Amino acid sequence: QVRLVESGGGLVQPGGSLRLSCEASGSIFSINAMGWFRQAPGNEREFVAVIIGSYGVTRYADSVKGRFTISRDNAKNVMYLQMNRLKPEDTAVYYCAARGGLSYQVSPNDYRYWGQGTQVTVSS
Predict the structure, then answer these.
(1) Which long-range contacts (CB under 8 A, 24 or more apart) does 103-106 make?
(2) Burial of residue 84, with CB atoms counted within 10 A of its CB: 0-12 exposed, 13-18 middle, 19 or more buried
């Protein structure tokens, strides 16, 4: 089993920045991809970004490309999402997710492990 715990959410003004963290524990040797998803009220959970494999290949949703950066610290077993130039439409609960496969997947159904989520609110 893998446990994922997110932190770093909060309230920020439009144009501001936040950094989310996701700490992994347990059978982390089984993980080959970790990603971020988000879900706004009334919406389906949507892909934000993923980091894959030992080389750390990254992919982003078009809506966040150029503003968000996904990274990880393997020594600490922590993944990050640096969010810059935040917009009100970025408001959502952000979830950390992990899977064993190496392929690029954007469907939440392809991720086995999930964190509890952290709220990000962008408002003036």
Answers:
(1) 103/33, 104/33, 104/50, 104/52, 104/57, 104/59, 105/33, 105/50, 106/47, 106/50, 106/61
(2) middle
pLDDT tens by residue, 64-96: 999 999 999 999 999 999 999 999 999 999 999
Query: Are 98 and 2 within 8 A, CB to CB?
Result: yes
Residue 114 Cα distances to 25, 82, 110, 124, angstroms: 12, 19, 11, 30
Tokens of 33: 């991809």
